[in-house]
Design brief:
The protein is an all-alpha fold and 168 residues long. It has 9 helices and 2 strands. It folds into 2 domains: 79 residues, no CATH class; 62 residues, no CATH class. The protein has a two-stranded antiparallel ribbon. Belongs to the IFI6/IFI27 family.
Length: 168
């Protein structure tokens, strides 16, 4: 009988390990897992933290159900926050419009700064590439309207020159 007991302990862990696993109730463990999932910074840290929590308590059906309920509650809480977030967005828009009216010069400088930062990306998205227009892009279609001859000083040539010289 002791041999069978030893084999079972080897396969399942000792009876002390089994009783130790069930120290915390599933809702408490599930709460820790849901908190880790929501507040975790990286996939690796979430994976490590969840594995540590699970290694102590082990997976059970009740734990899985408690985790699903916790995630459902978290999603519902986020849905409940949608209205206040929407109100905050409206207030932010009003504040930004008021600032723009009160400080037009500063707003123009900010807009030009944002444009200068985003312009290389916009040019690339439009198809003005480093080696010329990118096949199948807006720039390629625009160039095809010139039927092989792009006149000097055309807006197309200006954008293409920027696309060839101005990179991230």
């Amino acid at each position: 009988m002791a041999i069978i007991q030893s084999i079972l302990e080897c396969l399942l862990g000792s009876s002390a390990d089994i009783s130790e696993r069930n120290v915390r109730p599933s809702p408490s463990v599930a709460s820790d897992i849901v908190t880790t999932l929501i507040t975790g910074e990286t996939i690796e840290s979430i994976h490590k933290d969840v594995n540590e929590i699970i290694s102590i308590s082990g997976w059970t059906d009740s734990l899985a159900q408690a985790i699903l309920r916790g995630l459902d509650d978290a999603i519902q809480a986020g849905a409940d926050m949608a209205r206040p977030a929407s109100d905050a967005l409206v207030k932010a828009k009003e504040a930004a419009a008021g600032f723009a009216e009160e400080h037009p010069v500063f707003t123009t400088l900010l807009a030009l700064g944002v444009l200068a930062i985003l312009l290389p990306w916009v040019l690339e998205v439009l198809g003005f590439g480093e080696l010329g227009p990118i096949a199948g892009s807006f720039a390629a279609r625009w160039q095809s309207t010139y039927a092989g001859y792009v006149p000097r000083g055309a807006l197309f040539t200006y954008f293409q020159r920027l696309g060839m010289k101005w990179h991230w």
